[in-house]
TrEMBL record:
Designated name of the protein: CalS14
Any one Pfam family match given in the protein's UniProt record, by short name: Hexose_dehydrat
Domain dTDP-4-dehydro-6-deoxy-alpha-D-glucopyranose 2,3-dehydratase residue range list: 37-238, 273-472
One Gene Ontology molecular-function label: lyase activity
Phylogenetic placement of the source organism: Bacteria, Bacillati, Actinomycetota, Actinomycetes, Micromonosporales
Length: 476
């Protein structure tokens, strides 16, 4: 059972908050080792811990079977997760009704990062973790990335290292603790506990873990597929002082990000942002109904995959895994494999000299509350070619055009524990002062300070926007 955390000292007052702000800013400016050296360390850990991921047909997916009554793909233990069917109806968007497979994982995982001051600078304990679906095998991950099925040892393997810091009260000062959603198109009602705990005492070292500053993590974000999705979502929940260039000139993008993260001068008050998001949560009709996987229309099950008749969207595939540094050394599991590279993008604009991002009220069938604040664009562009071109998302063509100034364009991985080679192109593009501030009703402008404030609460900002928020903070 997850126990409530108590701080090692009294709850944060104004002085504590100011102190944390200064410490985060100092950590964001500190880079004792280059991204190249850290990438080399990660590659060395991958060589030291060999693994093998092999495609297998469903018949050879040990421990998994299709339930005879529903056709759902389930584990023999009744734990971990299942692949079920979903029927969706909505009055928003170009498609009003569809059926799809979806992952159902009721367990709330711990995505936990330990923090500690080293030589007067706040560091974060990151893990070189292999996931079977990672496009490059091993990535920088949270200290703990574990479901109850893992840390309660349903798999009869080893206990997750350092998990006691996030399960036992009084082990440290809590800097972040919030339940956050995951991909609303691929998960049904999925949520994880995003938590950062600062400790004062030394932590037992391990060769697969390394202490990094925020500045080093920001540098790694400029390289593809090095910082995993779970690390990005946890770190995005830090206060807005965790920016790369807090002392920068507002004329540079790094300085503009810092000013937008810390200062006032928003186009609308925070209450206006909350009102916009609440109205969009209350407005659209979205009805979802769990259905047996075998009854999902337009999807077909072959010996080695479940796929859509169009060849678009995603597939469900089986994999056998052998790994030398995981809690168990071998296992089988299904993975969701997207058909194409995703794209998430924030359009940014300076309004009265302050950088604003254009956010979208994003509706997905797997969200617990219908709509969450998302990026300006969030899609798989390959799904909107040919006959589907009329349904292209708003602003997609703008983001991909030469009318914008590109500040960030890096491929980042989605979570490799459930998705196979899921890669999303992350972009931040800026438009000029002549770009209109008027938007459709499901879009709005807000500062990074406001975005950070909204992200501090559960089920308000989607995982794609949180990932982009961290990338924005890494701009210099």
């Amino acid at each position: 059972m997850l126990l409530p955390h108590t701080d090692a000292r009294p709850g944060p007052g104004r002085a504590d908050r100011d102190d944390l702000a200064l410490r985060l800013a100092r950590s964001a400016r500190h880079r004792p080792r280059s991204a190249a050296r850290l990438a080399a360390w990660l590659a060395q850990r991958q060589r030291a811990n060999p693994f093998e991921v092999t495609a297998v047909p469903f018949a050879d997916l040990t421990g998994w079977h299709f339930a005879p009554d529903s056709g759902d793909l389930v584990h023999e233990s009744g734990r971990f997760f299942s692949v079920e069917g979903l029927h969706v109806r909505t009055d928003r968007g170009p498609v009003g009704e569809w059926w799809q497979p979806i992952i159902h994982q009721p367990d709330r995982a711990i995505l936990g990062i330990l923090a500690r001051e080293i030589d007067g600078v706040l560091h974060f304990l990151m893990q070189a973790k292999m996931e079977p679906g990672n496009v490059n095998g091993v990535q920088f991950s949270p200290t703990v990335q574990s479901t109850p099925s893992n840390y309660q040892r349903t798999h009869r393997g080893a206990r997750s290292r350092y998990v006691e810091y996030f399960l036992e009260p009084g082990r440290g000062r809590v800097l972040v603790d919030v339940l956050q959603s995951e991909q609303g198109s691929w998960f049904r009602g999925k949520r994880n506990r995003n938590i950062i705990v600062e400790v004062a005492d030394e932590v037992a070292p391990h060769e697969d873990f390394v202490w990094l500053t925020l500045g080093q993590i920001h540098d790694l974000l400029h390289r593809p597929n090095l910082v995993n999705m779970d690390a990005r979502t946890v770190l995005s929940c830090l206060p807005g002082h965790a920016v790369a260039d807090g002392d920068g000139d507002a004329g540079t993008i790094g300085g503009a990000v810092a000013e937008s993260s810390l200062a006032d001068g928003a186009w609308q008050p925070l209450l206006g942002v909350r009102n916009w998001l609440t109205a969009n949560k209350a407005g659209p009709t979205l009805a979802t109904r769990q259905v047996p996987l075998r009854e999902v229309r337009d999807w077909y099950r072959a010996d080695d995959e479940i796929r859509h008749r169009s060849g678009r969207f995603f597939r469900i595939v089986g994999r056998r895994v052998r790994a030398s540094n995981r809690e168990v050394s071998q296992w089988c599991q299904p993975l969701l494999a997207p058909c194409g590279t995703g794209l998430v993008a924030f359009v940014v604009r300076r309004i009265d000299g302050v950088l604003h991002v254009l956010a979208h009220a994003d509706l997905r069938p797997g969200y617990r509350d219908t709509v969450e604040l998302g990026p300006t664009v969030q899609c798989t562009p390959d799904n909107f070619t040919g006959p589907a071109r009329d349904g292209r998302p708003a602003y997609l063509d703008l983001v991909l055009s030469d009318e914008v100034r590109v500040h960030y364009d890096v491929l980042q991985s989605e979570e490799g524990g459930r998705f196979h080679h899921a890669v999303t192109r992350h972009m931040v593009v800026e438009v000029g002062p002549d770009f209109p501030t008027a938007t459709p009703p499901d879009y709005t402008w807000l500062t990074l300070r406001q975005l950070t404030a909204v992200a501090a609460f559960s089920y308000q900002v989607n995982i794609e926007a949180r990932s982009l928020l961290l990338c924005l903070r890494a701009l210099r």
